[in-house]
Each structure stands twice: as structure tokens, then as C-alpha cells.
Amino acid sequence: MTSQPKRTAHIISHTHWDREWYLPYEKHHMRLIRLMDVLMDTLEKDTEYKSFYLDGQTIILEDYLQVRPEQKERLEKYIREGRIFIGPWYILQDAFLTSGEANIRNMQVGHKDAARYGQISKIGYFPDTFGLVGQTPQLMRQSGIDNAVFGRGVKPTGFNNTVSDSDYESSFSELIWEGPDGSRVLGILFANWYSNGNEVPVDPEEAKAFWDRKLADAEKYASTPELLYMNGCDHQPIQTDLAEALETARKLYPDTEFVHSNFPKYLEAVKKAKEGELSVVRGELRSQRTDGWGTLVNTASSRVYLKQMNQLGQTLLEKVAEPLASYARLAGQEYPHDMLTYAWKTLMQNHPHDSICGCSVDEVHREMVTRFAKSRDVAESIIDESKQAVADAVNTSVFGSYGEDAVPFVVFNTTGWKRSGTVSVDLDVKRVYFREGHSFEDMRSQMKDFDLGLRAVVDADGNPAAFTLEDLGLRFGYDLPDDKFRQPYMARAVRVTFEASQIPALGLKAYALVSGEAATGLQVQKDSLVKGGNVIENGILRVEAAPNGSLSITDKRTGRVFNDLMIYEDTGDIGNEYMYKQPEGEEALTTKDLAASIRVVEDTPYRAVLEIVHDWEIPASAEELLDREQVELVYYPVRKAQRVKETVPMKIRTFVSLEREGQGVHIEASFNNQAKDHRVRMLMPTDIEASKYQVDSMFEVAVRDIHPAKEWENPSNTQHQQAFVDVSGEGAGLTVANRGLNEYEVLRDGRNTIAVTLLRSVGELGDWGHFPTPEAQCLGEHTVHLEIIPHSGDGVEAGAYQEAYRFQIPWTAAQTGQHEGAIDAVHAPYAWEADNGLAFSAWKVSEHTGDDILRWYNMKRETADLKLELTQGTASMYKTTILEEDSSDKLATASARAELTAGPCEIVTVGIKRS
Question: pLDDT tens-digit profile of 420-467?
């Protein structure tokens, strides 16, 4: 009787396919075509070459068939036979720089595209993701995936080395990963990387040396005799002689079973053979127990302009286009599933880590700008059509009492909370169409001579709103009707800026610009928010600008004063697109001792704005030594370059605005960067005692430590954020929200200062070679947006986090006519009551069922109740997953109301089938 092998070596063939990185997309694309050709030829010729894992992303199929459409049938054959594994993602995205909804669309599109080929690989695949968010286990479980296979974020200690003693260490390459909601998956860490079975030798002598080393390396970390070897690497060509190489290995090691395997087989074997007690790793995987030099965290600030474009693109799709298209469907318009998918796919093509992280060559990021614009154009087209369809269905007939010249318009609030604030809308107060036969001279004359006269803004109940009117003069425009040729016109246009009040969540409110006698007596007189040349104040906050341009903000509700806010900091950066490195011994430059010019630039009853200008001088660049260190591949932490003494101007123009009902202070800062090799941050000292703080991440308000682990050597402890970061303590808190500024640091300076990165300028890609990236210096004009939100110490209960989420989302408005309509002048299709801990995430229509989909997530680590109600009609409501499949978990049947409880940190999706 022969004894059974003591161990099994699972060899999984793959290639990690960065669509673009150190080469532009099309150059990688051409290599992909050759790889796929060779792969299918190998599968056809060699029956012992069992299977291939196509990197977890279905976009590879699109990219290949774009050039080889005639190969679709052959490709589908191997997928259906289980020899090519595809999905579950559309692309392999960066986890911290893409939104929760973007990740859900990624999973949905990947599943949809893979299903066309008859197979979806249920593998939570993250081979090279630069850290992983804490909600990943829950997202996997809701996708029917019970595992996560990843390469970064956890430190393996090795069973024969030491036992893990930390939440972010694992004794083995296999572990249990638990999310904040309690969801658990089997984690597979590439402890020896995803290339540990690459280029297996055929020659016996070479194979012996190879496998002696590789078997020992894997056994050092493995908890079972099932050993994983990844046969491939970045853009790795197919190993066509693998079958022969494995036969050599079998002869050399009769005690080992060498299997050309796949992930389902390997995972099944691990589950059956589980021997050692696995470590439980909880929450975010950010390489917390490392020296801090290789986390790649500063990709969060490489090419900040890309992050800003991404924030806008994601927001327009998930928080404006989808809700408005869902609203328009209730008004009779078809939901544009295919257009939205196209826009999402175009946007997601910018979401791979080497793309959105800004750590590729310049050609890559130039193409990204075009993709962002394309996706944004589609989103804006959907928004324009949808908002007009809804606005034209609103009953605006009440405004007829103000005369025929009254111009109705509708303001939309597509956030998940009731909203008030300053809205600007451009209106045509008079139009003359070319089709009417007027001469151009006559049209120009009519528009120029049109008297704007006395005007007022009113809502449907006749309540006037404080507003200002800007005459935009003569404007050319055109309609594109569905049943006629384009219809050009001349118009007299105005811009109305006013205070919109109490717009319901996911709802609308109609207003009108009225004129003449109808406007008499409707002028609103309210107190100014300007209390001096450098002080603005509302009922909640008092903001005073100091001579150096910093702000002192008093929260009247608590009496807490926050001083020295909004000081600018500049330091050298001799790192690369991946990691920041300040020159040794350098002192940071700040505007603390720089006089600023301060003046009031807007003083209206609804908003006050200060302009603060700093005329600053900063070093022009790093010294020439940095160029030599880059060419010679000197590891960035040990570089010695300093900055030159020559300076260039850095004029920063900052607008600080406070609205009458505002909970926070809005900041818009603009500057023309002409310096290289540096970083610019905005400093917000909190002076709050705390050892931990909160930060917005994907479907989670994560809790992080201010002080890093003892292993951390990097002087910098910058981290990722999405919408905000918050430091809270007894009786006071400070939330700093942003738009597309994904990097911050809570400084260990005795004041727990929140430092938000506005710009990082570097000149090389970094990593495995010398790749100059002059465009990563980000020379030219930049504008950034932040909001400072003081609160009472609990950001959820005080509404600070909700305000930070509202800050991300633009107001939407549409001009319409005077008409009857099925939609009330103040309206929202849904109403809900919820604990403050529930954050609204999405309103869309399911492509599977045609049902409305509403999604929330619980920001708190305790249960939260939700009561959901249709404002009109009845529906069947059910709880579903992020894949939005119909569910037997019914909440209500033929009802207008449903109730549910969200678990701690739970992502809750509700399907609504209207009766």
C-alpha cells in the first residue's frame, strides 16, 4: 500500500493585469491580445494545462474581444468548461479611493458580464490592492462570496516564527477576517506574494533548487498541508511548458502532490484540512503593524486632480443621475439602465489602483482625464433629461396668479436628508426662437431692451425667499426635441441665487421668479451675517479671520472656540507617486507668520463670504541631487536631497463662506502651483484630547488610532479618507469634510491637528525602475473645497456627519413652465424616519427586477431602526443584498409602510415593488 502524500502544492495559473501602469493602456492592451491568443492555444493543445484565472476582472474579456471579436465563441467555450475563470469584478479597483456604491456597481457589472458566459467565479480577489476597507467581508458575504484573497494589509508572522499578537497580524497565510458588522470570510494572504509559483523550472537541477525554497517558504506560513502557488505575475506571459515542469516536480518530490489547480479546488481543500487555529483579523487592513514606509498610502494624494474628478464623477452618477432617473421613471420616463452602465463602466476604467492612485506614467493619466469627461457627459445628459421630465410633471399652476411672466423652476435635493442652503439657477426670462422668423437684429434688440424690473422669488405657498439676481445678458441656446430638428433661440438670461429652505430628502420644491406688481411687497429683509470687516456669524457659528488669515470658529451651542484653523503648510517631497518623503532635517513652512489681506466679498441675507489672500514664497524645487538619486534608484526613505533656496510665488486665494442656516464653514481655496517636489496641506488644530478619531470610509465610519503601532518608523502617518475626518472628545468635536481630497493626517503635535493634503508634487513613478513623470508635479491652477463642521462631541447624533455627506452633493435645478401636474410643488416619493446612525447611500432601479432600490448603512456599532413609507400608492417591500436579487425576506406586502432594524455597521438594501 502506498502512503498518501503529506502535502499538496496547488499551482494556480494567472496573470495580474494592470490595464495601464508603466506603459500606456494601448501598449499593455496589445500585450494582452497576444497573451490571450497564447492562452487559448495552450488550452487547446495541452489537456494537462487545466485552467487559468483571469485576474478576477471581466473587463479583460471586453479588451480582448474589442480586437479579436471572432474569438468570442472559442473564449466562451473555455469559460463554460471551467478552464478560464472569470469575475466576480468588472475591474480590480482600489479600495480606499473608490466609493461604496462604485464598488457595488463594480460587483454588479462583473456578475452580469460573467453570467453571459455561463460562469461567475465567486472569489473575493484583491491581489495587489493597496490596503482593504473594513466592510469587505460584508460586501463579499452579500455577494455570495465566503472568502477574500489578498496581498496587502496584514503582516504574516509565520507559525515557526512567532504567534500573532495583534489584530493586524496573522500566524498563518490563512486567517479569519471579520468586518465591523460581524461578517466573516476565510482570508487567504499571499504571504509569499502572488508570484510565488512563477516560472516553474523544467530542468531537474533548477527545479530542485526552486522547489526546495518554495516549499519551505509556503510551509512557513501555511496552516494546512494545502500549499498555494500563484503561477504568474504582473503582465506575466503564459507558461506553456507548465505541465512538463509539474511532471519534473512530481518525480523530485514523491511526498508532494503537485496539482494544476484553481481557486475553488484550493479553497475547498483548505476548508477540509483546516488544522491550526486561525488568527482573527478585524476591520481595515492598512499594514498597521509595519514600519510604515511601504504602505503606498500617499497614492491618496498623487495627482489630486484625478481624485477630484473621480469624486465629482461618482457623485453625479450615484447621488444625482440615478436618483433623478428613478424619480423620472415615476413620472413616466424609461429608466436608462444601459446608459448608466456605460457611464459607470467608463468611470470604473479609471478605478484600478495604478490608475486612480495616480501612480502611472503621464500618458496613462492623460487618458484618464478623457474618460472622466466622457462618463461625466453621460451622467449630465441623464441628469438633464431626468430633471426636466420631473420638473415638467410638477404642478406649477399656482404661480399663474403672479402673471404670465412668472418663471417657475424646481429645486431638487438628491441627498438622503432634508436640506436648506444657497442655490444658484440660470433662468431664461424671455426667449425668441429662430423659427419665428425674426431677424437676428430684431432678436438682439428684443433681448437687450427687455426690462428686468422688480423681481422676487417665491415658493408655492407664497413665501418669499431672500435672493440676488445677476443679469447674464443675451444668450444663445437651443432645444433638441425628440420629434423635430434642433430649435435654436436667443434668450435674456439671469442667474438667481437664493436661500432654498427645507427641501425634503430625495425630493423637490417648486419656486418662481416673479416680476412687476406681483413682486411688490415680496422683498425679504433679513439681518446681515457680516459682523465686522473680518467676522461673519449666524445663529450657530461665529467665524473670525485673524491677520494671518487663519480662522477662529466659535460653536455657540457649546461655547467651544477652535483657533488657528486654516493655516497652510508647505514641505519638500523627495518621494514618488507612491510615498511621501520629507527632506531630512527640513522645517515645514507655514502661513502662521504671514500677513494676509482680508475683505468681505459677499454680504447677503442668506450668505456671507470673506476673501483671504496669502502672497507666499516657497522653494522652487528639490536640488539636483534628487534627479541623480532617482536615476540611480536610491530607495526613497534614504535619499539625501534638500530643496533649493530659490523661491517661486504661491498666491493662495481662499473664500470662506457661512450660510444663514449653515452648520459648517465652507472653504474654497485656489492657487497656481509653480513649485516642484513639495506638498501643500491645510492645518486644522482641534485642541481636543483623544487617542482615537473617526474617518469616513466605504460604508463605514472607521475608528483609527492617532498614535501608530510600535513598529511604525515613518515620521508621517498619513491615511485615506473619503468624505470626512473627525476628532471628538468630551463635549466637543471637529469634523473636516472635503471633496476629492483623500489624504489627511491627525498630527501628534499636542493639538491633534487635522492636516488635509491639498497638493503633492513629485517627479517619478517609483517602484521597480526609473519612470520620470513630470506631469505629476501638477503645475498650474488648482481649486479645493472643504467644510469645517464643529459639533458637540458625537458626530452622528449632532448631525455633523450627515452635513459632511450633504457637502459632497451639488444642488440640482430645472426651469419649467406654468402647468398642471401630477407631482405636488413640494414632494418626495419616499419618507423615512431613522436613527441618526443610518446614512443614506442609493436610490436606483434594479436591472434584475425593475424594482426601486434604496440603500442605507449604519454608521454606528449598535442597532438602528428605520421606518420607510411611500408618500403615494402601495408596494411590496423586501430586504435584499447588494446584488439586488428579489428576496423572500418581505418587509411589507401591498402596504405603504415598512419597518426594519439595521444591525451594527450593516449595509441595508430595500427593494420596492410598486403596486
Answer: 999 999 999 999 999 998 898 998 888 888 889 899 999 999 999 999
Return the active site residues: 128
Query: Where does 359-439 have alpha helices with state H?
Result: 362-391
One-character DSSP codes across 238-267: P-TTHHHHHHHHHHH-TTEEEEE--HHHHH
Mean pLDDT of the chain: 95
Grid cell in block for residue 509: 420644491
Give the span between the Cα atoms of 217 and 196, in whole angstroms. 9
* Type of residue at 911: G
Is the model's pLDDT at 163 over the cut of 50?
no
CA distance 156 to 218: 12
pLDDT single digits (tens) 741-757: 999 999 999 999 999 99
Q: Are 420 and 500 in contact (CB under 8 A)?
A: yes
Assess contact for 586 and 642: CB atoms under 8 A.
yes
Element (H, E) at 348: helix 337-348
Q: What is the largest CA-CA distance in the chain?
A: 106
Nearest Cα residue to 805 out of 828, 825, 789, 792: 789
User: What is the arithmetic mean of pLDDT over 565-569?
Assistant: 98
Residue 245 is placed in which grid cell?
515542469
Listed in order, strand segments (DSSP E) in 660-731 are 665-673, 678-684, 692-697, 700-705, 719-720, 724-729
What is the per-residue DSSP string for 752-811?
Answer: --EEEEEEEE-SB--TTS--B-GGGG--EEEEEEEEEEEESS-TTTTTHHHHHHHHTS--
Strands 125-126 and 147-150: parallel
The model's pTM: 0.96
